């Protein structure tokens, strides 16, 4: 049995969906299913009840889940425990930063770095929410800002900001409009690897509300989505706040309007490993972060 088998098992157990777990693991569903079968064969018992539309843990799978999580958590703690035992008093820590973080949160991270400067040198590390969360779990990052929801048993989550979302539309087609309805709009959907979990939910909600037309982009980033909107081919979803960092991706002939018949928001959280904060190597850093990131936002 390899650690990867346990990682694969935990991912499927948490998602109860092989396709969703495969996306989370950045692999195809077929080899993931085979790895689970290999694990079941080695353990001599089924871990999942499978049907065409349903996946559920067996009694053996439910019993294995906390054991597997504990093993993975212990392995994930090796890096920071080794650092704690061998590094000097002042250490460098990395904090994850997904794209488009609001300037207020960037300011708070700067304030955190200044407050703990005597003990920690805080550096920022970019990435997607899924990659940053994985890096916190395995000890490469001390903290990360992440787009919610994130459900990881070994991590603590502090909600730090809610941002209203609006429709990014061609300005010339909506001249004089102060809002927009979900009517006859083609949705320009960003590449899957750039979409945090919340936007996957948002995509499903838009589909249920009648937005059937989709322009699925690939091999491009936010700039590619902006090109589609600017040229009048569709709309996308982004932050309404004029101070949002995402406004930097706007091209000519683009504006952001609130929805009349749909309320959308994006939540951001600060995450860390629970065992590193509760008497661990970053307890002082986390306590300072809790104070700074929960202060009222003044505009």
Fold and architecture overview:
This protein has helices at residues 3-15, 18-25, 29-43, 59-76, 78-86, 103-115, 129-137, 197-208, 222-230, 274-277, 283-293; strands at residues 48-50, 55-57, 91-97, 120-126, 143-147, 155-170, 187-189, 214-216, 236-239, 254-257, 264-273. With 299 residues, it is an alpha/beta fold. Strands 3, 4, 5, 6, 9, 10 and 11 form a 7-stranded mixed beta sheet that branches. The protein has a two-stranded antiparallel ribbon with strand order 1-2. A two-stranded parallel sheet has the order 7-8. The N and C termini lie far apart (54 Å).
What percent strand? Answer: 15-25%
Assign the structural class, choosing from mainly alpha, mainly beta, alpha/beta, alpha+beta, or little secondary structure. alpha/beta
Give the overall shape, derived from the CA principal axes: flat
| Amino- and carboxy-terminal Cα gap | 54 Å
Spans where pLDDT lies below 50 across 5 or more residues: 191-195
Percent helix range: 40-55%
Whole-angstrom Rg: 22 Å
Order of helices and strands: HHHEEHHEHEHEEEHEHEEEHH
How is the biggest beta sheet arranged? 7 strands, mixed
Question: How many E-type strands?
Answer: 11
Continuous helix count: 11
Mean pLDDT across all residues, rounded?
Answer: 84
List strands and helices in order, with pairings.
Elements: H1 3-15, H2 18-25, H3 29-43, E1 48-50, E2 55-57, H4 59-76, H5 78-86, E3 91-97, H6 103-115, E4 120-126, H7 129-137, E5 143-147, E6 155-170, E7 187-189, H8 197-208, E8 214-216, H9 222-230, E9 236-239, E10 254-257, E11 264-273, H10 274-277, H11 283-293
Parallel strand pairs: 3-4, 3-5, 7-8
Antiparallel strand pairs: 1-2, 5-11, 6-9, 6-10, 6-11
Helix pairs in contact: 1-2, 1-3, 1-4, 6-11
